[in-house]
Amino acid sequence: MPAQQKKIIFCVAGVLSLACALGTAAAIGTQLWVKGTILCKTGALLVNATGQELQKFVGDIQYGLFRGQRVRQCGLGGRPLQFSFFPDLLKIIPASIHVSVILFCTVLIVFALVAAGFFMFNAFGSPYETLHGPVGLYLWSFIACSCGCLIMILFSSEVKIHHLSEKIANFKEGSFTFKTQSEQFADSFWIILVCSLVHFLNALLIRFAGFQFPFSKPKDSGTVTGAADLMY
């Protein structure tokens, strides 16, 4: 492939990696990871509410990695309550999983920035070491993609398996019991999915530029190749 086309491909991949880093950084600070509704089970049972009457006992909840908000409804109107995971909810959430999600988000941002830098370096400079060439680009993209997948797996398990929404809804509730009526992942969670797919796409772009995957055998085994063959 001509050098000019390779430069264009690397520029596109660099811009995508930079966009992923910025998008992940923005997602971490929002409370748009999970949205749902919570039912005040105790209040509904007290008045034997059915049908449309249940809507008076259905509140809302949304939260991210650091903070969130729930609207508590027990028949007397909504009462919003702001909360933060640190230190308010630290005793009731699976703290190790939650901290791991934040840690992998940070790693994802770092390696997305590293990948963006090296993509631009390969587009406008001349790689002088293997890790500055295609093998390095595969490595950075793979690490960033893996971190994105781990974030989604860990956070999904925290929400679904450990029933995070119900734990938050029942935090410091003495006489009332809340039950999760519905919950779905919101925009920030899907940004992580998009970022993972983008880094996988970047690996395909590197291959499309004409570079073999790392550790793959060359087509012509009789030709002696060196580190310079990995570069253009």
What is the gist of this entry?
By secondary structure, the protein is α+β, with helices and mostly antiparallel strands. It has helices at residues 3-28, 41-46, 95-124, 134-161, 164-169, 187-208, and strands spanning 34-40, 58-63, 67-73, 78-84, 178-185. The protein has a single domain (3-209), classed as Butyryl-CoA Dehydrogenase, subunit A, domain 3 (Up-down Bundle), CATH 1.20.140.
Give a structural overview.
Its main location: membrane. InterPro entries: Clarin. The structure is a single chain. This protein has 232 residues and is an alpha+beta fold. The protein has a single domain, classed as Butyryl-CoA Dehydrogenase, subunit A, domain 3 (Up-down Bundle). A five-stranded antiparallel sheet has the order 4-3-2-1-5. The longest helix has 30 residues. The chain is elongated, with a radius of gyration of 24 Å. The N and C termini lie close together (10 Å).
